[in-house]
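User: Structure please.
Assistant: Input sequence and predicted structure:
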Amino acid sequence: MKNISREPLTKRIPFYFVKKYRHSTISQWVILALDILMFVLAFSLTEAFRNGGFDVIPYRGIFVKFIWSLMLTVIFFFAAGSYKGIIRHAGMSDIRKLIFATVAPLLLCWIFNFINNQIPDRIVLTEYLFSYREATMLYLILGVMMIVSRLFMQRVYNEYFRRRRPTVNVVIYGAGAAGIIAYNALHQESNYEYHVEAFIDDDMSKVNQQLNGVPVMRARSVLNPKFIKSKEITQLIIAIPTIRMLHKQAITNKALDLGMTVKAVPHVSMWFNGSFSANQIQDIKIEDLLEREPIKMDNVNIVREVVDKVVLVTGAAGSIGSEICRQLMRYQPKKVIMLDQAESPMYDLQFELKNTYHDQLERMEFVIANVKDKARMEEVFETFHPNLVYHAAAYKHVPFMEENPYEAVYINVFGTRNVADLAIKYGVQKFVMISTDKAVNPTNVMGATKRMAEIYIQSRSTEQTHFVTTRFGNVLGSNGSVIPLFKKQLAAGGPLTVTHKDIIRFFMTIPEACNLVLEAGAMGEGGDIFVFDMGKPVKIYDMAKKMIQLSGRHGIEIKEIGLRPGEKLYEELLATKENTIPTYHPKIMRAQVRKYPLEAIDREYNELWGILEGMDDMKIVAKMKNIVPEFLSNNSIYCKLDTSTPPPQRVE
């Protein structure tokens, strides 16, 4: 952005005058008086041209001609409302009013003259009427004077009286209807003065043409350092609402590399009341650069699985649980039991869903409960007798769980055991657990507890109750994830903190992940662990750089603070001894994992329960490592358990 510097008018007129009247509007009666004065001047010029000068104007009959033509003109001034507009904001509608106010009396003058020519004694009236030529000259001069005077006053206001606005040079990607709408919206913006330097379009039939005087060019002709620097362009606006995700990402990345900020015109369905203004142009978010083309789902299986069923969702107030609840409501369940121990987030979810699905209130039930409270959970199962269970309740923050293994095991392992055992007792048809990539070759307490939960429910499948695990990586924008953290750090002026420059993670959108959870749950037959195609992993350091670029801010530091206890550089979706086999859905794979004997699992978990009562973190984690041999701590106080004790024995 840059400011245009001009010599202020205040050097030539008193400052108080500018300050006092810069935001005032001229009275409509003053404008009407000025228009009448212009008519007088136009009338005088017309008569002077007719008679060869002002000094030879025959004044006999002039007064009558002046009075009736003035009255006629003023009548049309009132009819058109040409004097009512605010001149500083005058546009085409105001010019149309001026044209009407001058053309209409001109036509009447022609009609009067025509009628007079049909009267035998017309010579009597001729001196009081305009000839065709005189009438045309009069109203042509008047129309030009009125339009020019308004343009002049608008120019004076814009140059000297209007508050100076910072200027922004932009290019618009898309020379179609959305591009024109964006162009017009930018020119109506009051906070900034936008200069559109070029339109970019991939349609070669539009290239080298102009829109509103702005050239339409190819992308490579605009998106290069020479052009951007010469035109001082700071912003690119993508005005193709239906653009493919990969194309949008490529354009954005190119623009960011050139130092521009990037915005986009939203789909027409998101416009306010069907109209569009500049403040609706959206910032490109980091989520837009990480998303993939939408996964197309055939929801027939989900409908068959959910319709007219009682569904229990634990952890319903969390990022994943709440989205599962939203999606379930679309499939006409008999009832959705939303259960969580977090009171405030549950209140927010209740408020949202009751407003969104106000015609389905009887299908929703909100329950405050903790999955580790077996008596309370049994009451829930006995009251509602769910047919399906989606188990999303868990502690998920790696550093916290590394410091609090007691709570991690209590909730993630034995909370899962409580719900799973009750699912069998009360005849639940299917139990779907939300797991994580951190359960694969775990290096931290949280990941190990999720793996232990997987092991437990995998061994519990019966002909009556099918247990299914879904395993995926990070979800964009979930509570406590890196993107909300970076946004807070940016808002505070930085720095953005990354634990390691080379750390990478898989990402998926929350709706995409939850839709795959529902689909995987529908296809599961018991004892399955499904993994999702998460796409390519993303380097967190690169994500931080992109977020700084997207914010348009400069000088924000990225600080490397070191790996946190238990944190991995690289996440995995499969353990080294696991393989996958495809399913009918290309984004869902079935993992082939080793099986654990039921009796051994019960014995080991009962022993862990006994150790848990002692609240000795070292003993708790040591037992976890015994149950999950691949659990090797990283950057943690529990690393010594991997070296100072005999190698743990695999559960057999």
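The radius of gyration is 37 Å.
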